[in-house]
Specification:
Layout lengths: L13 H6 L8 H14 L1 H17 L2 H6 L7 H30 L1 H20 L5 H29 L2 H8 L1 H23 L6 H8 L2 H10 L7 H6 L3 H12 L4 H19 L12 H19 L2 H6 L1 H9 L3 H25 L5 H25 L12 H18 L6 H7 L6 H30 L2 H20 L8 H5 L15 H10 L2
Helix pairs in contact: 2-7, 3-5, 3-7, 3-9, 3-10, 3-11, 5-6, 5-7, 5-22, 6-7, 6-10, 6-11, 7-8, 7-21, 7-22, 9-10, 9-18, 15-21, 15-22, 17-18, 18-20, 19-20, 19-23
């Protein structure tokens, strides 16, 4: 590899390099390998979705309540802790994952994450008759899952051609919706097919978590380590082999891409001799870190994740209690899969990242605020056997439109967007901060949503609608467009709303000052 590459360009040449578009056409085998790598690492998304969907149903099963010996008076408290403690574990893992991914690489970090999750899932599956043991196992599983959610977007963004980065990066959310969809029907199947006195009724859905976790860990054996991480560690021969494998090509275009990667990584590495945490608070770095934090916070504040966890409770507000709320929840899961799949396969690389996020939030705000108005004006019937009123049908349609909009925007897009806005130097801590905010507010909303539904009723929809409207305004004011740009180009542009060729940083002045400031 060393003989084939020209000498690395010096710092002053990076400006020209970052602004020169390079079209990577790739080979058919290269695209297949890219899709394979994206599918393997995004098993972490399937695992995340399956666990998110499965626990709510398991907690309502008579067999689980009997084995863990708690009554109806403790349901809200148990539901909140069982979901919230895993989110807390995921939040803490984000800060542990950063040094782990930096030292051991993306591939090994995902294998370790898978192993840790399997320990937690195995303890959950054992009938310990102890809620304390179940809570501890939820935290352990959360640690593994949280670490995986940090490594997955980094691994994807660092290995994908820029023409595929948005699409394959969105696989995480698509696989997440698959996981939720499967979990809803697994819960439904065991409730219908297994006696309520049999512990297998709840052990089967919990134990099935081990399958996607194992696929994630073992799947890492079939893919190479991240090209950019290997380059950052000075392992250039391995980095070249990694890039050759994922592109299935060793032509001059791939050599040029390797040179661009090395130049970008080197430029970041030589800006200062040692990374300091305070760098995250300086200049352009702070704008990017804050944007990552805000984007993932906004993803949770849309209200869609709360629907994933507590779908039946939400539909009870609309159509009343009864089996029809479970059916509507299952259909809700199917709508998520189809909507997200349509976006990922056909629109993710054809639409502006920025416009998708702005438009999605505005449309969701309209749906939620209208839903609040309808539910307030036409409350759901109190009986579970009554038919669904026309107002209820209209409201269900609004909720389905809401989830379609979410899966065309704030569901899949934050994962590739946050992973691509950072320069190589701060990518690990930057992504970690962003994903940590996702877990933090996931934790907050999963704890508070059961109480919001019981105390606020229709006001819950209004609250989410207001949040969505604010998100649309802030996205318009602050988010930068990144579609079609290489990671190196994004790293050498100012982070500001919109996109312009004049956004390029003065590398000699801005970047060096940014890292040596104060």
């Amino acid at each position: 590899m060393e003989e084939r590459q020209p000498l690395l360009r010096q710092f002053s040449d990076n400006e020209q390099l970052s602004s020169r578009p390079t079209k990577m056409k790739g080979t058919t085998l290269g695209k297949i390998r890219a899709y394979w790598l994206g599918s393997v690492v995004c098993m972490g998304g399937f695992l995340f979705g399956y666990d998110s969907g499965i626990v709510g149903g398991v907690l309502t099963m008579p067999s689980f309540q009997s084995d863990y010996r708690y009554g109806s008076g403790d349901k809200t408290h148990t539901n909140a802790l069982s979901v919230g403690l895993q989110q807390l574990g995921g939040f803490l893992a984000c800060f542990l994952a950063w040094p782990l991914t930096d030292k051991l690489g993306r591939k090994n970090s995902l294998m370790i994450s898978s192993f840790v999750f399997c320990i937690g899932a195995a303890i959950q599956t054992i009938n310990t008759h102890s809620l304390a043991a179940f809570y501890v196992s939820r935290v352990i599983a959360g640690l593994g899952l949280g670490a995986a959610t940090v490594a997955v977007p980094m691994f994807n963004s660092e290995m994908m051609p820029k023409e595929m980065r948005g699409q394959v990066g969105s696989f995480f959310q698509w696989f997440y919706t698959f996981g939720i969809f499967v979990s809803y029907w697994v819960d439904y199947g065991v409730v219908r097919g297994i006696a309520s006195t049999d512990p297998a009724q709840w052990q089967i859905p919990i134990g099935l978590q081990l399958a996607p976790a194992a696929l994630l860990g073992l799947g890492m054996l079939t893919v190479p380590e991240s090209t950019r991480w290997l380059t950052k560690k000075g392992r250039h021969d391995e980095a070249w082999r990694s890039l050759q494998w994922i592109r299935a090509d060793d032509s001059q275009a791939t050599v040029d891409e390797m040179e661009e990667i090395r130049s970008g990584v080197t430029a970041e590495a030589v800006a200062t001799e040692g990374f300091r945490i305070r760098e995250l608070l300086e200049g352009e770095n702070f704008k990017r870190v804050f944007a990552a934090f805000a984007v993932f916070t906004a993803q949770q504040a849309t209200g869609a994740t709360a629907f994933a966890y507590f779908g039946p409770q939400y539909f009870n507000l609309i159509v009343g209690n009864g089996e029809q709320s479970l059916l509507l929840t299952a259909i809700f899961g199917a709508v998520k899969v189809v909507a997200c799949g349509t976006f990922v396969l056909f629109f993710s690389e054809r639409l502006s990242r920025r416009q998708v996020l702005i438009g999605g939030a505005a449309f969701m705000a309209a749906c939620q605020i209208t839903t609040a108005a309808v539910v307030k004006s036409f409350p759901a019937p109190s009986g579970g056997d009554q038919g669904v009123a026309p107002s209820g049908i209209a409201t269900v349609a609004l909720i389905y439109l809401f989830v379609i909009a979410y899966n065309f925007s704030w569901g899949p897009m934050p994962w590739p967007y946050v992973s691509e806005i950072f320069p190589a130097r701060i990518r690990e801590p930057g992504v970690a901060v962003g994903v940590a905010s996702q877990w933090l507010f996931n934790f907050i909303f999963s704890l508070t949503t059961p109480y919001m539904i019981s105390s606020m009723g229709w006001g819950t929809f209004l609250l989410w609608g207001i949040f969505d409207a604010v998100i649309a305004i802030l996205a318009f004011a602050f988010l930068k467009e990144t579609r079609g740009l290489s990671l190196e180009t994004i790293a050498h542009q100012r982070f500001k709303a919109g996109s312009s060729p004049n956004d390029a940083l003065d590398n000699k002045k801005d970047v060096v000052a940014e890292h040596h400031e104060g």
